[in-house]
Amino acid sequence: MKKCKVLYSAVFFAACLTVGFPVRAQTIPVEKPYSLKDLNEQLVMATLWVQTSAEYRALCQQAYNMARMMLDKDLAEVKTDKKRIVIVDGDETTIQANEYEAYMIGKDLEYPSQWYDWVASASGKAIPGAVEFLTYAASKGVETYYVTNRKVDLEYQGTLDNLKKLGYPSVDAEHVVYRQKGASDDKQPRQMALEEKYHLVAYVGDNLEDYPISIYQKPIEERYRISDAHKDEWGKRFIVLPNPMYGAWEKAIKDNKKGVPAEEQNKLRKALLRQWKP
Ligand SMILES: [Mg+2]
Fold first, then answer.
1. Could you tell me the distance, in angstroms and rounded to a whole number, from the CA of residue 2 to the centre of ligand 1?
2. Separation of 195 CA from ligand 1 center, angstroms?
3. How many whole angstroms separate alpha carbon 6 and alpha carbon 22?
4. What is the spatial distance between Cα 178 and Cα 158, in angstroms, rounded to a whole number?
5. Backbone dihedral angles phi then psi of residue 159, each to the nearest 5 degrees
6. How far is the CA of 59 from the centre of ligand 1 (A)?
7. How far is the CA of 209 from the centre of ligand 1 (A)?
8. Residues lining ligand 1 (ion), CB within 5 A?
9. How far is the CA of 259 from the centre of ligand 1 (A)?
10. What is 219-244 written as a DSSP string?
11. Span from the CA of 240 to the centroid of ligand 1 (angstroms)
């Protein structure tokens, strides 16, 4: 009889193991891979600063006030038979693209996902001080050239529409100098072609690649060196606007490589932070 009980117990235990009752399955937490959505969280503070701080507006207006001083000085002091021009950049110099940056927050995507739709919407706002300065320049006979890395084959009409809607002067196929299809995004050849032809009063940009200083795709230390070598020109011939959200500075962090996984980008960023070590 005792032998039978032992046998029944063994059979019952084996059956429980087979059907999983009453033994509960253990939940093993699965770690989610670090995604673009996680990386995009890092855009929150920089984008908020651009969109909500009065400091951002003041810096933009300060930059364009400097540009106007440089223009007045040039008109008063420089004699030239050449046409006077200013060269400005597009995104974050004349058109605010930060609403697209904000759109990416909370989403698992990266530029250029839906970028071309955003450009076609022609909905970017003006950079504070920019329309006023370029309208003033036009009133003095100084023409604006918009040297942008927006692509002529994909972003032509949306860019013209946006600039026109905001009231910028000289918005036409001659004055908006796009990146040609399949061409490099190094702006320097386009900048130099304009410099050779016209009298250049000032450059305005938000990225050091908006100036003809041979800084295209240079690493971080080299960018410092080039910027310092031109220290007397900032705020004079070269006017700089703030952009903490994106640009050549951010690409330099990942050594100008494309397709770096989100997790790796996060690691590269964190590794470059200079941290207090108590
Ligand atoms: Mg820009």
1. 86
2. 20
3. 19
4. 12
5. -70, -45
6. 15
7. 9
8. 89, 91-92, 206
9. 21
10. -HHHHHHHHHHTTTTBTTTEEE----
11. 10
The answer to whether 147 touches 178, Cβ cutoff 8 Å, is no
d(CA 251, CA 257): 7
Q: Does domain 36-263 have CATH number 3.40.1170.60?
A: no
- With left for phi above 0 and alpha for psi between -120 and 50, is residue 71 left, alpha or beta? alpha
CA of 8 to the centre of ligand 1 (A): 79
The kind and range of the H/E element at 148 are strand 143-151
**Distance from C-alpha of 148 to C-alpha of 180, rounded to nearest angstrom:** 10
pLDDT in tens, the chain (278 residues): 455 455 555 555 555 445 445 556 678 888 899 999 999 999 999 999 999 999 999 999 999 999 999 999 999 999 999 999 999 999 999 999 999 999 999 999 999 999 999 999 999 999 999 999 999 999 999 999 999 999 999 999 999 999 999 999 999 999 999 999 999 999 999 999 999 999 999 999 999 999 999 999 999 999 999 999 999 999 999 999 999 999 999 999 999 999 999 999 999 999 999 999 99
Torsion of CA 115, 101, 216, 154, to 10 degrees: 10
209/197 Cα distance (integer angstroms): 20
CA 205 to ligand 1 center in whole angstroms: 6
Distance CA 89, CA 60 (A): 14
**DSSP character at residue 1:** -
Residues ≥6 apart with Cβ < 8 Å to 103:
114, 118
